[in-house]
Amino acid sequence: MRKIIYLMIIGIVLTSLSTGCMTILKGTTQQVEIRSTPTGADFIITDGYNSQIFRAITPSTVTLSKERGEIYFINIEKEGYEELTEQIEYTSNFRDILFLNSLFLGGPIGYFIDSKYSAKTYQDQMNYILIAHGSLITQITTTFEINRDILPGKNIRQKDKAEQIYLRERSVPYLMNMAAQRYPDFNIINIKDIKWKLVNTISGRGWGTNVYELSGNIIYTD
Question: pLDDT tier at 1 (50, 70, 90 boundaries)?
Fold first, then answer.
């Protein structure tokens, strides 16, 4: 009987120590740098209740909550450019929360805390492209291949995460280069609204190759 009580106490202690693993490791808030192209734009961040929580000039760093259900919108204005308003994007931490709570025995309590207070992750830097009055926009679409063997990581989860980072980092310069080749007479300013969609997977030795459809809107002048 005494041994059973000791085991129960140890179990409770372990659960308490591991409760909210994601929350402990990554925190409940995140600092995000807000940038714009061009810089020096006025911006306001509001929450889902349309309450203003931050106002500054780009570039500036803001602190955003990672709590489940908390959403933010940004409005950016600069003289000579069109006003921009959109929701601040984030990625879900659902997979990481399940993994950490399984690894450290966080259980239902740990899962509840993490899923509520560390439910999302924002990009560390967000750059918003402003469109000058008189600029023109046209869409460009192309394919983009990623050889997963060149990506860091030893398992599928690590490879998938590295692939998303690779896409974010390489998509803009790749589309800019393609746009310059297709439209040599355009004065290309930038590319925005970039999207990608997996359209094919080429199996073979190693981790294979993923083929994406990559698209975006070219901002240019004649």
Answer: low
